[in-house]
C-alpha cells in the first residue's frame, strides 16, 4: 500500500444495532454520516460480530457481495446495495502483518460482507469509494483480541481506519422490539457508562475483567460476540487514546448504540 502523505486515522467502535438503521434517518444515522464526513481514510478494516472463526480469516475479494444475514424485515432492506470495493492488496498486507504477530491467518476471496459491515459503512461512507476489508472475529481470549488490534494499529498511520462492529449492550431477549424510543433500562445505562469510564481512565485490566467487575455484565453481555470487537479496537488505538463519542444513545430500552472513535 503505497500512499503519499497519509493522514493518520482513528480506531472506531460501532454499535450497529438493528439492520433497520440502514433505512432510517434518525440521530444515530445522522451521527454516523457526520463522522464519515470528518475523516478521509484510504481504506477501512472492519472486525464484525457476525463473522466468528477459530482463527483469523480476511475477506480478500475485489468486489465482495452483501449478505442479508437477517430475517423478518421489510423488503426494501433486502434491496439495498453497497458497492464499495474490497482490496486484495490491503487484505494481503493485513494477513502478512497478523502472521508476523503470530496469528493463524487465511485469505478468503469469496467472503461476502455481513450486515455488521455494510450497514454502518453505508451510513458513514455512502459514496462507496473507499476500499473495505472485513476481518473475522477470532473466538479467543480478550487478551488475544487486544493483541490482534495491536497488530493492526500500525495501519492507522498509513491512512487506514480500523473499526470494530458490535454492541456494548446487546441482549435481544430483553429488548422492547415494539418501541425504539422506549424508556431506557437503568441496568443498560449503568453498564454502558461503566465501559465508557474504564476506557476514558485507561483501566484496561479492569475492563478485561468485565464479567466479574462490571455492573449487570450478564444482562448486558449474555453472549460475547457483540462486545468482543471492542478489544481489537482498543488494541489498535495504542497507549492512552482519547475517547471521542460519535453517538451515545440507547434504543429499544437497552440496545446500546454507543459509537465512538479513539485517537492519540
Overview of the structural elements:
This protein has helices at residues 27-38, 75-78, 88-100, 115-124, 142-152, 186-200, 204-208, 210-213, 217-220, 230-237, and strands at 11-15, 43-53, 56-59, 105-108, 132-138, 160-166, 242-247, 250-251, 255-256, 259-263. It is α/β, with parallel strands linked by helices and 264 residues long. Helix 5 (142-152) packs across helix 10.
N-C termini distance: 23 Å
Please indicate the count of domains. Answer: 1
CATH topology: Protocatechuate 4,5-dioxygenase, Chain B
Shape descriptor reads globular
Q: What is the strand tally?
A: 10
- Strand portion: 15-25%
Protein structure class: alpha/beta
Q: What is the name of the CATH superfamily?
A: LigB-like
Helix count equals: 10
| Largest sheet entry | 6 strands, mixed
Mean pLDDT: 96
Features:
264 residues, alpha/beta, two-stranded parallel ribbon, 10 helices, 10 strands
Brief sketch in words of this structure:
By secondary structure, this protein is α/β, with parallel strands linked by helices. It contains ten helices and ten strands. The protein has one domain: LigB-like (Protocatechuate 4,5-dioxygenase, Chain B, 3-Layer(aba) Sandwich), CATH 3.40.830.
Give the secondary structure arrangement, pairings included.
Layout: E1 11-15, H1 27-38, E2 43-53, E3 56-59, H2 75-78, H3 88-100, E4 105-108, H4 115-124, E5 132-138, H5 142-152, E6 160-166, H6 186-200, H7 204-208, H8 210-213, H9 217-220, H10 230-237, E7 242-247, E8 250-251, E9 255-256, E10 259-263
Parallel strand pairs: 1-6, 2-5, 2-6, 3-4
Antiparallel strand pairs: 1-10, 7-10, 8-9
Helix pairs in contact: 5-10
Amino acid at each position: 500500500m503505497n500512499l503519499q502523505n497519509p493522514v493518520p486515522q482513528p480506531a472506531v467502535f460501532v454499535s450497529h444495532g438493528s439492520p433497520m438503521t440502514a433505512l432510517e434517518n434518525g440521530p444515530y444515522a445522522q451521527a454516523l454520516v457526520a463522522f464519515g464526513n470528518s475523516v478521509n481514510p484510504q481504506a477501512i478494516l472492519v472486525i464484525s460480530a457476525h463473522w466468528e472463526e477459530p482463527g483469523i480469516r480476511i475477506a480478500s475479494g475485489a468486489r465482495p457481495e452483501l449478505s442479508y444475514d437477517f430475517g423478518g424485515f421489510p423488503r426494501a432492506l433486502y434491496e439495498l446495495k453497497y458497492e464499495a470495493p474490497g482490496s486484495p492488496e490491503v487484505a494481503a498486507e493485513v494477513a502478512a502483518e497478523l502472521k508476523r504477530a503470530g496469528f493463524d491467518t487465511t485469505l478468503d476471496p469469496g467472503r461476502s460482507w455481513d450486515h455488521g459491515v455494510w450497514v454502518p459503512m453505508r451510513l458513514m461512507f455512502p459514496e462507496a469509494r473507499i476500499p473495505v476489508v472485513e476481518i473475522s472475529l477470532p473466538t479467543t481470549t480478550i487478551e488475544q483480541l487486544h493483541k490482534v488490534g495491536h497488530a493492526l494499529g500500525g495501519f492507522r498511520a498509513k491512512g487506514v481506519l480500523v473499526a470494530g462492529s458490535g454492541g456494548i449492550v446487546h441482549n435481544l431477549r430483553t429488548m422492547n422490539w415494539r418501541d425504539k424510543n422506549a424508556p431506557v433500562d437503568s441496568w443498560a445505562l449503568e453498564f454502558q457508562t461503566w465501559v465508557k469510564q474504564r476506557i476514558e481512565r485507561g483501566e484496561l485490566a479492569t475492563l478485561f475483567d468485565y464479567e466479574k467487575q462490571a455492573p449487570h455484565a450478564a444482562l448486558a453481555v449474555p453472549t460475547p460476540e457483540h462486545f468482543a470487537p471492542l478489544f481489537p479496537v482498543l488494541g489498535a488505538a495504542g497507549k492512552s487514546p482519547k475517547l471521542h463519542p460519535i453517538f451515545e444513545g440507547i434504543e429499544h430500552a437497552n440496545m446500546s448504540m454507543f459509537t465512538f472513535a479513539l485517537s492519540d
